[in-house]
Amino acid sequence: MKRELGKKRQFASDASHELRTALTGLRTELEEARLHPDETDLGDLLIRALRDVDRLDAIITDLRILAGMDAGPPMPPQRVDLTDLVRDEVARRTDRIAVRLRLEPGVTVQAVPVRLGRVLTNLLDNAQRHGRHLVEVRVSHDDDHAVLTVADDGEGIAESERERVFQRFIRLPAARRLDQTGTGLGLAIARDIARSHLGTLHAGESETGGASFVLRLPVSPVDRAPRPRTRLGTSRRVNLVPTRTRKSCRSCL
Questions:
Q1: DSSP letters spanning the chain
Q2: End-to-end CA distance of the chain, in Å?
Q3: Which of 36, 175, 210, 246 is a plausible cystine mate for 253, CB 3.0–4.6 Å?
């Protein structure tokens, strides 16, 4: 009990620090512009101010997600086709890098769809931030588990940092360099959701040397009967015009 209370106090302190940091940056920029209006480039000021507002908005959104998870699931779990969920999520995104899919059909789990979608969103946002030319999503069966893998061809995560990236508000130097508006909560939220569904989420190295995040969830009870091995299907979505990735988080890298 005392340990849990200490963790909540530490989280509240960390959240307060992150919010105050973003607000302080915004206040400083606006005050400097007020004191030196003739030396201020209005366009540049607005860009920097909006960046700080984006960061504040992202932090608040992630904090609301965490608060909702602490309060319990918004609805009972239901049977979710993981393959369909991945296809739908990727199809509605407009990403910098086209996403390559390798999906085994008929992989189903018991889950809250909106939360499982949040896991995929956060992992894809992370991969888009760090990938150079390749982002790949794979769905498959492994005994009594469904396996979702999101991989990229970026610089990867050092083995010593692969657990640390799941800590709240932790952002590695590469993440800070690539995206100044990240919250450091995306991967933490994804792992919390995985655990709430009796699953696991771990970081590793992809086949291309980048990062690989592997989500394992128990398959739906009706799908636990022995099944023949199915060859993975492959599809590709191509974005003709690179655009900025939709906001959410990499927490970390």
A1: -HHHHHHHHHHHHHHHHHHHHHHHHHHHHHHHHHH-GGG--HHHHHHHHHHHHHHHHHHHHHHHHHHHHHT--SS--EEEEHHHHHHHHHHH---SSPEEEEE-TT-EEEE-HHHHHHHHHHHHHHHHHH-SS-EEEEEEEETTEEEEEEEE-SS---GGGTTGGGSTT---HHHHHH-TT--S-HHHHHHHHHHHTT-EEEEEE-TTSSEEEEEEEEBPGGG-S-----PPEEEE---SS--PPPS------
A2: 32
A3: 175
Nearest in space to 86 (alpha carbons), one of 146, 174, 2, 164: 146
- CA torsion 186-61-179-168 (nearest 10°) is -40
Give per-residue burial for 125-150: e unless 16+ CB within 10 Å, then b. Answer: bbbbbbbeebbbbbbbbeeebbbbbb
Distance CA 26, CA 70 (A): 30
Q: What is the per-residue pLDDT across 184-236, written as a single tens digit (0 to 9) for each?
A: 788 999 999 999 899 999 999 999 999 999 999 999 776 665 555 545 554 44
